[in-house]
TrEMBL record:
This is CBS domain-containing protein. The chain holds residues 61 to 216 of 216 of the full protein. Keywords: CBS domain, Repeat. Residues 22-78, 87-156 form the CBS domain. Signal peptide: none annotated.
Length: 156
């Protein structure tokens, strides 16, 4: 393929791309939203997972298609049940930051067998609470990463 080391440059250019260059817009729902409304949002926004935020707009959970399907085949009233009951919660949420690379994101997606990662920016909350807020500033999915490979293949 190459006698020199140009493939190393290609490698860096491909895997070293920053999350902020490839992320897409996140869709968030409030913790008090019902499971029913969350399903409607998933269809309207045409995405596979949604991120759940609290009153301070800090990330507290993730809900996937299968989480929603599972609760739908159960007995509960999905119009009354808040989505926060079924979400995967912090601190178990796998996140990335704008400055991380696509290689780091791809490794996390493979390791944890998940479809999407919230992109977060950590902010200091109020002085009294001393809490850190996880502001959701995007999402990275398997599709984002596949697109990077396709675009790169077309370019070289
Ligand atoms: P699906 O469940 O529709 O196949 P995923 O593979 O993304 O979609 O989700 C698998 C499980 O992992 C779900 O229970 C979901 O709540 C959880 N999950 C999804 N994304 C994350 C994440 N970024 N961090 C932690 N858990 C996640």
């Amino acid at each position: 393929y190459s006698r020199d080391n140009s493939y190393l440059r290609d490698f860096d250019e491909l895997y070293g791309q920053k999350i902020k260059e490839i992320k897409s817009a996140a869709v968030v729902v409030k913790e008090e939203a019902s499971v029913y409304d969350t399903i409607v949002t998933l269809f309207l926004k045409d995405i596979g997972s949604l991120f759940i935020i609290d009153q301070q707009e800090s990330l507290i959970g993730v809900v996937s298609r299968k989480d929603l399907l599972k609760i739908t085949i159960g007995e509960g009233d999905i119009k009354k049940m808040p989505v926060s009951v079924i979400m995967t919660r912090m601190p178990n949420i796998i996140t990335v930051k704008d400055e991380d690379t696509i290689l780091e994101a791809a490794k996390l997606i493979v390791k944890y067998k998940i479809d999407s990662l919230p992109v977060v920016k950590i902010e200091e909350g109020s002085a009294e609470s001393g809490q850190q807020l996880y502001k959701v500033i995007g999402r990275v999915t398997k599709t984002n990463i596949a697109r990077v490979f396709v675009d790169f293949g077309l370019k070289i």
